[in-house]
Design a protein that fits this description.
homodimer; about 350 residues; alpha/beta; seven-stranded mixed sheet; five-stranded mixed sheet; 12 helices; 12 strands; globular
Chain lengths: ~350, ~350
């Protein structure tokens, strides 16, 4: 049985919500087990609250925690007995461990992932790739959304390859449509980085490039994959989050105001629930860190149990879909193509 | 009485909706009159549909139209008798003309604005500055959102100065809070451009800088002004538009489905209307092109009358608030400061 490591100490609501969410995931799927890394006494205390198959849960004690106040690159070097570093090492070293989930410091997950798990051969820079619910009822993969604030055109072309492989293996999309996030749909739009990236992605093999797309297309769902430099991808993601949160708050207020509007809520309930779920990024699960040799999922820092459960299942799904194999093959082809061109 | 020039031929619904929207604006405020530029026969035909004070409407005939298929910089040079070029020249040449409104090609409005109206002394690059409704019930000014895809740090510092002057004169905000759009709130976040811009804005006089802000803060409303390079500002704006439109569509569907939900709509109507209005960027009015010697307002290409009316009033308000004087003074101070430093 494969195992998923969960960093029990990372996140604003650790370990309470982390343990709860992960244990709930055990009920959803029966084909995996959990390894928690963290303060064993605290984790065991939380575990006692739930009923679960004890043979599917292991706890590895760690004496340290990496917080958001730590400098990420320094923390992953010095806090060797932290729940994050120990977890990433388990992922790297043990063949039966298929994935790692943390709601801890993003910077530390990124730095630690590269340092301890390592990149797939040929990958220049791993990238964060969240799946954003869209108007057509599916998800838009946005890659990168913050791991790399400074990008080169060739990095953007690699993001297109990585996210396409992810769309195929984790979402079953046979020929994912890939757009490049820019300030207009015309090919000449954007700064030099994006103009050059457009040309490179256009030539990339196994990428179904549909050209430049705009910020609004992320939620319209006309592309399966939207490629972005980490700076503007992050701005797009958070702009959508801000709009979604604002709308959710106004809706909640609208239906709390009067008895009449509470009644009215009952009538429109199904659609409104769908909408709130769509806008609630905390329930979207985690963001995959694509390009590493094994699956690393970063859950939102403010994750409650309901975000941890889908994050854990996401790691299981990635294993079942053969994500890492698919990514590795994509880059083997890329490397051999490039080799052939020389 | 001051005059506002309206490009009657620009936009997807010109001249029908443009003329209608502008004439409706005449009823809202009594202290200005209109000059339409465009095909006189067509404009007069539309005008015949409405009741208005004929002494407040003038039509200047033009034989050409600039479309979205034209190359902007070339079109403003060659189509000298287009409604857009003739309108911008009237704005420049006549002292009684205070503003210009067009729903035509954005590129042509930008190129024509710089060429025929000219920049305020000291302004490196004019910028598009839309006012986005936010959660606190006011507006967030986002500057630049697309006029300048490639920016230098000093340009971003100027956007902070320009948008602050606009917030003071048009929105009555005494000490507008200015944030820099980046991929994190910490000062070191962002690429080199944004790190340098952060340092420059921090030192700018008459700018109340609150540091880096994230995409989500645009709609939260914790800053009055959000400064952005035109590339990522455009992505933020359109990401918000896409989220808003998607939510609006789902809401409409939710309340159309059944008799019960139509009844329910009545109860929550007020809040929902407020929400739809907030998300409907077509009703937001136009986007000001800041940094020119006179007020130029770009209305959305798909503008209907309900978008043109607020755009015309926005031009009147800018005049009444003394926007151009305030901008000119800001840059006089800036230039003399810089002179003093040398």
């Amino acid at each position: 049985m494969i195992k998923i490591v969960v960093d029990a100490m990372g996140g604003d609501h650790a370990p309470v919500e982390i343990v709860k969410g992960a244990v709930l995931a055990l009920q959803e799927k029966k084909n995996f087990s959990l390894i928690f890394t963290g303060d064993e006494a605290l984790v065991r205390e939380e575990l006692r609250k739930y009923k679960y198959d004890a043979s599917r849960v292991e706890v590895v004690h760690c004496s340290e925690v990496i917080t958001n106040d730590d400098v990420p690159t320094q923390a992953v070097r010095t806090k060797r007995d932290s729940s994050l570093v120990v977890g990433l090492k388990l992922l790297k070293e043990r063949d039966d461990v298929a994935g790692f989930v943390s709601a801890g410091s993003t910077g530390a997950v990124l730095a630690g992932g590269i340092m301890f798990v390592g990149r797939i051969k040929g990958v220049m820079r791993p990238a964060l790739c969240p799946a954003i619910p869209n108007a057509s009822g599916s998800r838009t993969l946005l890659c990168d959304c913050g791991a790399n604030a400074e990008c080169k055109p060739s990095m953007l072309a690699q993001f297109a390859v990585m996210a396409s492989a992810y769309a195929r293996s984790a979402y079953g999309i046979k020929n994912p449509r890939v757009g490049l996030l820019s300030n207009g749909t015309e090919q000449h739009k954007g700064d030099l980085l994006h103009q050059e990236a457009n040309a490179l992605i256009r030539e990339a093999k196994n990428v179904n490039f549909i050209g430049n797309v705009e910020g609004r297309d992320i939620m319209y769902g006309d592309a399966d994959v939207v490629v972005a430099d980490g700076f503007s991808g992050n701005i797009a993601l958070k702009s959508i989050e801000g709009c979604g949160k604002t709308v959710s708050d106004i809706l909640s207020k609208a239906f709390r105001k009067s008895f009449g509007s509470r009644i009215s809520y009952l009538f429109a309930k199904k659609q409104l629930k769908k909408l709130k779920l769509m806008l609630d990024y905390s329930a979207m699960g985690g963001t995959i860190f694509l390009g590493l040799q094994k699956t690393v999922i970063k859950s939102h820092g403010s994750s409650m149990a309901k975000s941890i459960t889908p994050s854990v299942l996401q790691a299981v799904d990635a294993y079942e879909g053969g994500l890492i194999r698919s990514l590795t093959e994509s880059f083997e082809n890329l490397v051999s193509q490039e080799g052939g061109d020389e």
